[in-house]
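Lecture notes, part 5. Sequence design as translation. It can be helpful to think of inverse folding as translation between two languages: the language of shapes and the language of residues. The source text, in C-alpha cells, appears below.
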C-alpha cells in the first residue's frame, strides 16, 4: 500500500508535468545520471507524462553496471585462493564475469559473502586473523567514503589481513566522457543528489561552463525529478547554462567536508575503466600510497583489469544514453532478470532492469 506522502508526491508530479507541457517549445534530450532516479522515473511513468518534445535518456549511475568485467574476473580468481574471504554488496554477486559470477564461485566452495557495509568486512578481518579478508569496493562518491573509512579503521587497528579490490568511480569525468562522444545526444543533466550530498556541486560548474549546458542537482522523489526536469528545461528554453540545485533540503555547493577529507586521505584520483564506456581519465579512486598495504591488487599481484562487454549486450550505448533498453534486440527475450546477459539487467539500479520490471517489455 502506498504511503500518503507518495500520493502527495504523485499529485504534485502531475501538476508539474502540466506546467512543463505549457513551457516546452522545442525538442530536448536530458539525462539523469543515477540509476535510482532511472527506476523512479520509469516506475512513476514520468517519461510518459512529459511532452513528446522531451526525451529522457539514462546515464551510467549504476555502480554494478559500470564495474568492468575484469574486476569481477579478478574477484573470482581471488576466491580460488583457500585463504581468501571475499565480501561485497549483494548485486555484485550475480553480475556475470567472463566464465562465472561470484555466486558460481561460492557454489564451487569459495568463501564469498554479502555485506551491507565495508566496516562489516573490517570486523570480520579482526575476528578471523587466519583469513585474508578482501572487500570488493564498487560504487560512486556516495559509497567511497565508507570504504575509505574502513581502510583507515583497518590501519588504525593494525590489521594486516584486510584489503580492498578498489573499483570506485567518479561522476564528473564520466559526464565529460559522455559529452565528448561524437554520438552524444545529451543537452542537459540531472545530477545525482546523493553524490552531491557528499561532493557538493562545485565540481560540475566548470563542466556546465565548458560545454554550455544546464546541470540540475536533483533528488529522488517523483516530484523532485519533475522539478529537476522543469528547471533544466527552463534553462534550455532560456538558452542559459550553469548548475542549479533542486535538492536544497540536502545538498550544499561545498558538500560534506569530513567525507571529502577521508577520500583525499585514503584514495588518489586515477584513470579508470568503465564497463561499456572505456578508460575515463580521472574516472576513479585508487588506494593512495600511504595505504598501499590495503590494496588487494598490489597485495595479490593482480594485473590491471580490462574492460569488456558481453556479446549481444549494448550496455555501453545504454549507459551513454545513445540508446534506451527496448532498442536492445536481447531486451526481454534473450536477456531477462532471470537470465541476464549484461549488468544493466542484473542490478537493482540498472536501466534495463527498470524497463523490464515496470512493464516496458516487448
Ligand atoms: S537488455 Fe540485456 S543485453 Fe541488452 S543492453 Fe540491457 S543488459 Fe545488455
Amino acid at each position: 500500500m502506498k504511503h500518503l506522502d507518495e500520493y502527495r508526491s504523485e499529485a504534485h508530479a502531475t501538476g508539474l508535468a502540466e506546467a512543463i507541457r505549457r513551457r516546452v517549445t522545442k525538442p530536448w534530450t536530458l539525462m539523469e545520471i543515477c540509476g535510482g532516479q532511472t527506476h523512479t522515473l520509469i516506475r512513476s511513468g514520468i517519461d510518459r507524462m512529459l511532452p513528446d518534445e522531451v526525451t529522457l535518456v539514462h546515464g551510467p549511475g549504476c555502480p554494478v553496471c559500470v564495474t568492468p568485467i575484469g574486476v569481477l574476473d579478478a574477484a573470482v580468481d581471488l576466491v580460488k585462493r583457500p585463504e581468501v574471504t571475499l565480501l561485497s554488496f549483494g548485486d555484485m554477486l550475480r553480475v556475470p564475469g567472463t566464465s562465472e559470477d561470484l555466486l558460481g564461485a561460492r557454489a564451487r566452495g569459495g568463501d564469498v559473502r554479502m555485506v551491507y557495509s565495508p566496516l562489516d568486512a573490517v570486523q570480520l578481518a579482526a575476528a578471523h586473523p587466519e583469513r585474508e579478508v578482501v572487500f570488493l569496493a564498487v560504487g560512486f562518491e556516495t559509497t567511497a567514503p565508507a570504504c575509505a573509512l574502513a581502510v583507515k579503521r583497518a590501519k588504525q587497528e593494525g590489521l594486516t589481513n584486510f584489503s580492498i579490490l578498489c573499483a570506485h568511480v567518479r561522476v564528473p569525468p564520466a559526464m565529460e566522457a559522455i559529452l565528448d562522444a561524437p554520438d552524444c545526444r545529451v543537452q542537459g543533466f540531472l545530477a545525482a543528489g546523493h553524490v552531491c550530498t557528499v561532493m557538493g556541486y562545485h565540481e560540475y560548474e566548470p563542466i556546465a561552463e565548458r560545454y554550455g549546458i544546464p546541470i540540475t542537482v536533483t533528488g529522488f522523489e517523483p516530484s523532485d525529478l519533475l522539478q529537476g526536469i522543469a528547471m533544466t528545461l527552463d534553462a534550455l528554453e532560456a538558452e542559459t547554462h550553469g548548475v542549479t540545485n533542486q535538492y536544497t533540503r540536502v545538498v550544499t555547493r561545498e558538500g560534506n567536508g569530513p567525507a571529502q577529507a577521508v577520500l583525499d586521505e585514503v584514495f588518489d584520483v586515477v584513470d579508470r575503466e568503465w564497463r561499456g564506456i572505456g578508460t575515463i581519465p580521472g574516472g576513479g579512486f585508487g588506494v593512495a600510497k600511504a595505504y598501499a598495504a590495503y590494496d588487494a591488487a598490489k597485495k595479490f599481484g593482480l594485473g590491471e583489469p580490462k574492460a569488456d562487454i558481453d556479446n549481444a549486450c549494448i550496455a555501453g550505448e545504454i549507459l551513454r544514453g545513445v540508446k534506451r533498453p527496448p532498442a536492445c534486440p536481447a531486451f526481454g527475450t534473450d536477456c531477462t532478470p532471470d537470465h541476464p546477459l549484461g549488468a544493466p539487467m542484473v542490478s537493482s539500479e540498472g536501466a534495463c532492469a527498470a524497463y523490464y520490471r515496470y512493464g516496458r517489455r516487448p
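The translated text above is only one of many valid answers, since several sequences can fold into similar shapes. The two ends are 28 Å apart (CA to CA).
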